[in-house]
Amino acid sequence: MNATIGGIDLTIAYWVIFGIGLVAMSIAFVAHDFFHFGDDGSVLPIAAFFMGVFGAAGIVSLHLLKLSPGMSVITSTVSAIAGSVGLYFGVLRIIRKNSGTLSDKREDIVGATAEVSLAISEDQLGQITFTTPSGRSSAPARSADGKPIKQGTPVTITRSIGTTYVVTPVNFTSKEEEKT
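The structure assignment produced for this chain is given below.
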């Protein structure tokens, strides 16, 4: 005898939900959306994971644990909620926090010290290298006063214009200049 609720065969329903969840997780992973969710409005990874866990927990609770249909639905729901919350606040938040991103906030970068990695000339952009919360980054830069800045010169990032940073050479005190 098949387990049913409201005329719906739970075994088939669990397998369908599990399959949809797996397909959606695969799409999210292949589309590189699996580790970018929440803040940018994407809920696909969490919804897909919820469906996958719900379906899998339903199959296990109904066939392996031999729970009643009602208890199977409750167990599946609780498992899917707990798994999704754990995924969001545990695993993916840690991965997201520790992985390098291109979304470093401009206010974290402006005011930071960088090094000119490709000389800045009067009429051409150069490149700077700096450290951000997600690691070392490089970006195009130009001089604030229009004067050239040599490669290897420490600079302060004063502002950003689009993806280009405006920089000024770091002023050394006389004691620091005596050391060099």
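Interim note for the steering committee: The longest strand covers residues 135-143. Residues 174-178 have pLDDT under 50 and may be disordered.
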